[in-house]
């Protein structure tokens, strides 16, 4: 019952995140008439929190109970979201405010994600983690589907800034479900000689020395670098080069992200058939080329390139994320869960602003289509880290937790 409440809270929170992911750049493009580089900065601010606070968040969460952290961050994000339509209502919304709001929402999201990932192993036994992670991945898939389509149409119906009201309500709803969880974590014992810097260092050393987690972290960083380069210019590419409306962009996202929904339903079977390591390898091998084909998108039937690329990429992202999170939760000792979760997530959130900035610069200098090709090529290189690791020589991860 408590996992169901956590699952429902995550589902609604994911919906809010996905709508913001689409709507914020559309606010910049359609309402504030931002340039390609300015739109990329919106993405950068949204992900900068990981780079600034990722490691600190992991150490702090290991000192705290996770449920209160999730409550505070949900309600805090809701309040920040409401400031955007409030400013637009009085004609005072600016790019500077949008940057600040996205930065602060991103920081709170860092703490929510670290607490959320650390809470699951405290709530469930190890044998139930794969199934639970697959269900949480299904949330991300459904949220991506609903957020992409609903976000695009709501932008046309309400105008972009006022869609942030719906985002705010989603975070309030998520917070109410977290509040309904009855499971209470025991107080975290305070070590007499604890030191934040030493605790962060212990987490970093563990990940770097762990033969399974290090290649996963490096693989993820490389993939996300390429992915975020492409994402930073994708809205401008679809609006200004392909000539799509906000509603059509939302529809394209919905069709392509069906791959994520499919992956959520079959990941458990794929892992049972191939084993965790081989399933991860297959997903990574397919992911880079899926990003590359998006660059061939044109109007009319050429939209099929975007649909196919997004479908395959979304499937592989969910598959690889479920496997990676399960491996991490399996091999990591309980006292290090928060720090290791933050460090692994930092390979996503910390690299994203770098990729967004690089993508914005390349998009300005070389054009958005060329930037999409380069971003896909970078993502293709990520499999090298796995091929050079013990993961290439095994199929299942067993008996590593300690």
Describe this structure in words.
The chain is an all-alpha fold and 402 residues long. The chain has one domain (2-177, 197-393): MFS general substrate transporter like domains (Growth Hormone, Chain: A, Up-down Bundle), CATH 1.20.1250.20. Helices cover 80% and strands 0% of the residues. It has 16 helices and no strands. The chain has helices spanning 2-31, 36-63, 66-89, 95-123, 129-158, 164-180, 196-209, 213-241, 246-256, 258-274, 276-293, 303-331, 337-349, 352-366, 368-380, 383-387. α8 (213-241) packs parallel to α14. The chain is globular, with a radius of gyration of 20 Å. The two termini are 28 Å apart. 57% of the residues are buried. The model is unreliable at 398-402 (pLDDT under 50).
When the domains are counted, the total is 1
Order of helices and strands: HHHHHHHHHHHHHHHH
Helicity, as a percent range? over 70%
Secondary-structure class: mainly alpha
**Overall geometric form:** globular
Residue ranges: pLDDT <50 for 5 or more in a row?
Answer: 398-402
- Rg over C-alpha atoms, rounded to the nearest angstrom: 20 Å
CATH class: Mainly Alpha
| Amount of beta strand | under 5%
- CATH fold name: Growth Hormone, Chain: A
Largest sheet: none
- The helix tally amounts to 16
Number of strands: 0
CATH architecture heading: Up-down Bundle
């Amino acid at each position: 019952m408590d996992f169901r409440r956590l699952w429902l809270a995550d589902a609604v929170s994911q919906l809010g995140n996905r709508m913001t992911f689409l709507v914020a750049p559309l606010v910049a493009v359609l309402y504030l008439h931002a340039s390609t580089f300015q739109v990329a900065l919106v993405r950068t601010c949204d992900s900068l929190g990981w780079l600034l606070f990722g490691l600190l968040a992991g150490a702090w969460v290991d000192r705290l109970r996770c449920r209160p952290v999730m409550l505070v961050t949900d309600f805090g994000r809701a309040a920040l979201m409401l400031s955007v339509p409030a400013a637009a209502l009085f004609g005072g919304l600016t790019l500077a405010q949008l940057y600040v709001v996205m930065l602060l929402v991103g920081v709170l999201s860092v703490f929510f994600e670290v607490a959320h990932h650390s809470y699951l192993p405290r709530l469930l036994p190890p044998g139930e983690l794969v199934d639970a992670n697959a269900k949480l991945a299904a949330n991300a898939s459904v949220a991506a589907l609903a957020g992409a389509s609903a976000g695009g149409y709501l932008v046309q119906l309400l105008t972009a800034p006022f869609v942030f009201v719906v985002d705010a309500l989603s975070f309030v709803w998520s917070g109410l479900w977290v509040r309904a969880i009855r499971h209470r974590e025991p107080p975290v014992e305070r070590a007499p000689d604890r030191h934040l810097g030493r605790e962060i260092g212990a987490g970093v050393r563990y990940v770097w020395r762990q033969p399974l987690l290090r290649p996963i972290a490096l693989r993820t960083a490389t993939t996300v670098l390429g992915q975020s380069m492409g994402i930073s210019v994708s809205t401008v590419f679809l609006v200004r080069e392909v000539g799509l409306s906000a509603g059509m962009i939302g529809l394209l996202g919905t069709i392509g992200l069906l791959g994520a929904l499919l992956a959520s339903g079959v990941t458990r079977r794929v892992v049972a058939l191939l084993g965790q390591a081989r399933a991860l390898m297959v997903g990574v091998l397919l992911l880079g080329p899926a990003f590359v084909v998006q660059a061939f998108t044109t109007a009319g039937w050429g939209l099929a390139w975007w649909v196919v690329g997004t479908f395959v990429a979304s499937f592989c992202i969910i598959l690889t994320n479920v496997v990676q999170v399960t491996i991490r939760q399996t091999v990591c000792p309980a006292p290090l869960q928060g720090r290791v979760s933050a460090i692994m997530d930092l390979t996503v959130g910390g690299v994203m602003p770098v990729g967004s900035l690089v993508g914005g610069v390349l998009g300005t200098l070389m054009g958005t289509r060329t930037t999409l090709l380069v971003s896909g090529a970078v993502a293709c290189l990520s499999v090298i880290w796995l091929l050079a690791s013990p993961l290439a020589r095994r199929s299942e991860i067993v008996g590593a937790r300690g």
